[in-house]
Amino acid sequence: MGRVVLTRALQGLAWLVLAGLVAEFYLAGAALFGVTPSFQPHRMLGSALVIAMLLLLVVALIARPGRRLLGLVGLLVVLTIVQAALPSLRAAVPALAALHVVNAAALLALAGPIARMAGQQSAERAAAYERLAVAGSRG
Q1: DSSP 8-class letter at 92
Q2: What is the 3-state secondary structure (H, E, C) of 42-54?
Q3: Do 103 and 79 touch, CB atoms closer than 8 A?
Q4: 3-state DSSP call for residue 4?
Q5: Is the pLDDT of residue 64 over 60?
Q6: How far is it, in rounded angstroms, from Cα 94 to Cα 101?
Q7: Nearest partner of 80 among 54, 55, 60, 61, judged by Cα
Q8: Residue pLDDT, tens place only, 89-135
Q9: In a 3-state reduction of DSSP, which class is residue 107?
């Protein structure tokens, strides 16, 4: 049952990260087009997402969802670290800092499959746990 709970936590956190990334795109656009007075909300949510993605990696390491999903989560964290560093290159290497937008698209493209895979694993583990519980009650 513990693995089922961890996999559900992984699933929920993955969907939360995905929703946060969509909100990040909106907040960047809102700042760019004057809906908000600054990029501060975008920066604040970005900082929270860094923490959420690190937590996602910790939960994935504990839940042991399989190599593929764990690898994708690891890649997501690496790209997140790159994402956090890119804006600091704005003055020194603006062309490299501009990859912040491209990397954000890669993060979003990666977060969707992670959330879907975590959901599939959650359903599979719940079904396996249920089968074991039914078999145990018959024995």
Answers
A1: T
A2: HHHHHHHHHHHHH
A3: yes
A4: helix
A5: yes
A6: 12
A7: 54
A8: 999 999 999 999 999 999 999 999 999 999 887 667 666 666 666 66
A9: helix
Query: Nearest to residue 53, comparing CAs of 88, 26, 19, 8?
Result: 19
Structure tokens at 88: 């600091």
Looking up tokens 């959330």, which residue turns up?
115
The length of the chain in residues reads 139
Structure tokens at 42: 């975008």
Dist CA 29 CA 23 (whole Å): 10
CB atoms within 10 A of CB 48: 12
Which structural domain range is residue 48 located in? 2-138
DSSP class per residue in 20-75: HHHHHHHHHHHHHTTSSSSSHHHHHHHHHHHHHHHHHHHHHHHH---HHHHHHHHH
Cα gap 119→91, rounded to integer Å = 41
Under 8 Å between Cβ of 12 and 56 = no
The set of residues, in sequence order, having a beta carbon less than 8 Å from that of 52 and lying 6+ positions away, is: 13, 16, 17, 20
User: For the chain, how many helices (H) and strands (E)?
Assistant: 5, 0
